[in-house]
Amino acid sequence: MNPELDALRPYPFERLKALMASANAPTDLAHIPLSIGEPQHAPPTCVLDSLNRHAGEAARYPTILGLPELRGTITDWATRRFGLVPQSLDPQRQVLPVNGTREAIFAFVQAALDRSRPARVAMPNPFYQIYEGATLLAGGQPLYLDCHAENGFRPDLEAVPAETWSEVQLVFVCSPGNPTGAVTPLQDFKRLIRLADEHDFIIASDECYSELYLDESAPPPGLLEACVALGRHDYRRCIVFHSLSKRSNLPGLRSGFVAGDEALITPFARYRTYHGCAMPLQVQQASIVAWRDEPHVLANRHAYRQKFAAVSECLAPVLDFAPPRASFYLWPAVPDGDDEAFARELYAEQHVTVLPGRYMSRDSPQGNPGAGHVRMALVANVDATLEAARRIRRFVERRY
Question: Of the residues 98, 99, 367, 392, which has the fewest C-beta atoms closer than 10 A?
C-alpha cells in the first residue's frame, strides 16, 4: 500500500465521534447537529424534475469533458456572476464538469504537483482537510498559513518569506472560508496572482460557498474576477472550483465544475480520462437546469439570512463572534478557550453537536489557530436552528 496513507490524519468527524463516545446526551431533547455542513433546505423542484425526465440516460456512457451544453451553461453563469469579458472563458478548453469540488480538488493536486522538485502546497489554517490529504498523497508538503481574527481570518501573505514561496507549487484559497466564513477581498486575490507570477505557482480557489452571502448587494469576489481586474483574460496560473451542493442544496447530486487556465485544464482533463470519473448524463442535464435558475438561489440566501439574524441575536450576548459575510457557518470563540470541552459538555447537557475548531487546524509555532473556537453549521430549518441557539445560550449562561 502507498506508505503516504500513514500520514493522513483522522477526519474531524472521526475525532468528534470519539470525543462524544462517553457522553450521555439527554434523551428528552431531540438531537440538533450543527457539526456537519450538509445543506438541509429543499432542493429545487426543477432540478429533481429534470433528473426524472432524463433517468434513461443512465444507459449511456458519459464523457469526461461533459456535454457541450453544460459547459456552455457553466461559462454563461461564470461570465455573468464574476463580470468576465464575454468569450474570454472558452467552454471547450477552459471549463470541465466534475463530480463535486471535493473529488476535483483531490484529483487536481495529484495531477498538478511535480514530485521531482520541492512541492509545498500552501493552505489556510484552519482548513478543509481534503487540501492536506490530497497534498500528502501526492507527495507534497503542506504549508499552513494561520488565519487569526486580527487579520479577518485570512492568511497574511506578506508574512511568508520569499525563499518559502520559491518552494511552493500550489496555493489553496477558500473564499468564502470554511470554517470561518471569511471572504477574500479582490486586492488579496490580486496580490496572490502577482506572487504566483513572481514565484511560478498555481492558485486553486475553492469557491463552493460563493453564492451564500448575507448582503445581496455585495457578492464575494472570485479569482477569475481578479484576473479580469488585472487585464489577465487567459486566467494564467489560476483555477477555480464551484459546486451546486451549497448553492442549490444538492450535495447528493455531486455536481460542480473547474475553470481557468487552459494550460491547467487540458492536462487535468487528460488525467481524468484515466481517473474514470465522468459525470452521469442525467446529472449533467439536471446541472444545466440548476445553473440556469437563479430564483431558487435567491430564496436560499434569504433563508440563510433569516437564520443568521435570529441566531446572532440569540447568541451575541453570550458568545464572541464576528458576523460572517458569507457561507453558512458561525465561528465563535468559546468562553474559556477549551473548544473540546465546550463541544462535549454542550452535547451532554443540551444534545446539540458542534465541531471543535482545533479539529480543522494544525499546530503552528504560534499555537493552533482553530483552538478556542467551535464551528456551527446553520443548515437545518430556522426553527431547529433557533432552538439549538437557545440551548447553546442556556448552556453558556449556566456554565460560564
Answer: 367
Which positions ≥6 away from 18 have C-beta within 8 Å?
none
Cell of 53: 425526465
- Predicted structure pTM score: 0.97
Euclidean distance between CA atoms 111 and 207, whole angstroms: 20
Axis-axis angle for helices 130-137, 101-112 (nearest 10):
30
CATH class of segment(s) 59-292 = alpha beta
The H or E element containing residue 202 is strand 202-206
For 231, phi then psi, to 5°, come to 70, 25
- Tell how strand 256-260 and strand 355-356 pair up: unpaired
Residue of 218, 158, 214, 159 lying closest to 185 (CA atoms): 218
Q: Please, are residues 170 and 122 in contact by the beta-carbon 8 Å criterion? A: yes
Q: Are 108 and 258 in contact (CB under 8 A)?
A: yes
Classified as helix, coil or strand, 39 is: coil
Q: What is the pLDDT of residues 294-348, one digit of tens each?
A: 999 999 999 999 999 999 999 999 999 988 899 999 999 999 999 999 999 999 9
Give domain limits for the chain: 3-42+296-399, 59-292
Query: 184 with 155: CB under 8 angstroms?
Result: no
